[in-house]
Each structure stands twice: as C-alpha cells, then as structure tokens.
Design brief:
Order of helices and strands: HHEEEEHHHHEEHHHEEEE
Shape: flat
Number of strands: 10
Largest sheet: 6 strands, antiparallel
Distance between the termini: 57 Å
Radius of gyration: 26 Å
Length: 314
C-alpha cells in the first residue's frame, strides 16, 4: 500500500514538472519571437529611413515610393510582409495599408495642421470640421494650454480655476496631449487624429495635403484676412485638380491657377506664403512579425537633419 502511494506521488510530481518545463519552453519561445519581431520592426524603420534619404527631389509627390510603396519601375509593392531572409517567414511591414488619402506607406507630417502654430481662426475651422459644438471655446482652450499670450485667454484661465483644467503653457510634444485640453473629447480626438501634428514649421505641403485638410487651411486663411468663405471648396478643388492633372507643384511659379474673384485671389496669395513643396518630417509605422508574435514601432524621422525625433514602441 505504501509503495502504491509513493508511485502516485511520483507520478503527480512528474506530470507537474513536465507541465512546468513545457510552459517554460513556450515562454522561452515567445520571448525569442518577441525579440526577433522587435528587431524586424527596427529593421523596417531603418529601411524606411534609407528610402527617404534616397529621395533628392526638391518636391514631393503622392506617387513617390516613400508614399505609395509602389516601385514605379518594377510595379511591385514594397515593404509589405518583406522577408529579411527568403523563406524565413519573418517579416516587416511599413505603413498602414488600410490608410486613406493616397498614402499607405510613410506619411509626411507637413500634410497636417500643426496645433502648436495654428492661429485662432485655423483652430476654430479645424474643430468645427471635427464636429465640436463649441469650436471657438475649444480653440481658446488649446491656445491657453500651449501658453499663448492673449488677453482673451485670461478669461478662459479664470473660468477654469475651479475646474479640472490643465494649462501646460508650453508647446504640445505629441498630439495625444490634446485629450488633456478642456472640451476635447475622445470623439473629437478621433476625428482630429489624421489631420493634426506637432512637427514642422506650420507650413502645409501643397503636394501631399488631402482636400479636406486643405479646405480647413483655406478657411482659416479666409477668416484671418476677413474674406468670404463661399468659394473655399471651389478653390481647394482647383488646387487639387491642377496637382492631379499637371503633376506636383515644383516651385512657387507653378502656383498658377484660374481665380474667379477678389476673395479667391486674396486667399490664394496668402496661401502661397504658407506652403512648402517638400516635407521634412515623416511618420514611419513599422510592424515586425516572427511566428505569431508582432512588434510595432512608430517613429518620426526628420529628413533635413537626418535624425529620429520621435520614437514609440507598442
């Protein structure tokens, strides 16, 4: 009887030990795969930087490889489940292949509106487009948060003293800080996300800006110079149509489109002073995959100075 109990106990111990060993092996394999996936994601970022540095054109285009991920010579799609070693099934992918507005690979930040430099008028237009019911108040909250000096903001700050308001009084370091601003809800943030940035000088890239963002920018200009907004959509369509049919704008001399009114002319002339033809800041989203494990990195690369200025893992 005693021998039987000993046998049962030893059997249970061996089963438990076997389970622990199996679990340890699985954890070890997962940790190795996780490290390899991370390394693959870093390789994706490195490949994106190399491609950006290869482009020496003085203007950008939505058809350039950094933007489309399509090689114009071979007509092959690049950086999609790209293997480091053929047959390894360990891959990296650059970009969001479900993204809209023509850029599925890397995304230049100058196609967006800079919330650190945007005027009151531009912020208001931006927030109205995002669906804010109190766009002017929310714009003032953004300005107060970033530390603008304006007598109008003193009332905003006084009104917030007894509420949960945050005034950082320094520039936004990332767009996620918008959720700390009074009035900016998660729903508004969702609508703003693809249109805002904290990188760049505040000038908009006329060659990459989507039509919706361009119209917001034009509306902000119209309000700044007290021009009519009636022709904003028509003017935006003309700018985009010229880009699509005539190719990218290469110099200021290319900014020549038919204008039908004094307001259109005044808005467009002001726009000319606030555009660039080539971007310097690029969002790189890289995903590495080893076995069933994925690792993601988001980085912003400053092409002019050749350095990474933002890095997030997760």
């Amino acid at each position: 009887m005693f021998s039987l109990w000993v046998l049962i106990i030893l059997t249970l111990l061996s089963v438990n030990l076997g389970h622990e060993v199996s679990l340890s092996l699985r954890v070890g394999r997962y940790s190795t795969a996780q490290l390899r996936a991370y390394a693959l994601a870093r390789a994706g970022v490195g490949s994106a930087v190399v491609e950006l540095n290869r482009n020496h054109d003085e203007y950008d285009s939505l058809t350039q490889l950094w933007c489309s991920c399509n090689d114009p010579v071979t007509e092959k799609t690049l950086f999609l489940n790209q293997e480091i070693q053929e047959g390894s099934k360990e891959t990296f992918t650059i970009g969001d292949r479900l993204a809209q507005e023509g850029s599925r690979c890397m995304v230049d930040e100058e196609r967006k509106i800079n919330i650190n430099t945007a005027s009151m008028e531009l912020l208001t237009a931006l927030l109205q487009n995002a669906g804010s019911p109190n766009a002017k108040a929310d714009a003032n909250s953004i300005r107060a948060f970033r530390g603008d000096s304006d007598p109008e903001l003193l009332m905003e700050i006084r009104n917030c003293q007894n509420h949960d308001c945050i005034f950082k009084k320094s520039p936004f370091v990332n767009t996620e800080e918008l959720v700390l601003v009074k009035g900016i809800t998660q729903e508004l943030m969702k609508n703003l996300k693809s249109k805002v940035t904290v990188f760049g000088s505040g000038a908009i890239n006329i060659n990459t800006v989507p039509i919706e963002t361009l119209n917001i920018f034009l509306k902000g200009i119209a309000r700044e110079i007290s021009a009519s907004e009636n022709s904003i959509e028509a003017l935006g369509s003309k700018i985009i149509k010229r880009r699509e049919t005539g190719g990218p704008y290469k110099t200021r001399d290319d900014l020549d489109i038919p204008l039908d009114s004094a307001d259109e002319t005044n808005i467009f002339n002001r726009l000319k002073d606030e555009v660039v033809f080539r971007s310097d800041n690029f969002l790189i989203q890289a995903t590495g995959q080893s076995a069933d494990v994925k690792s993601r990195i988001a980085a912003v690369y400053e092409r002019k100075n050749k350095k990474i200025i933002f890095w997030h893992e997760g």
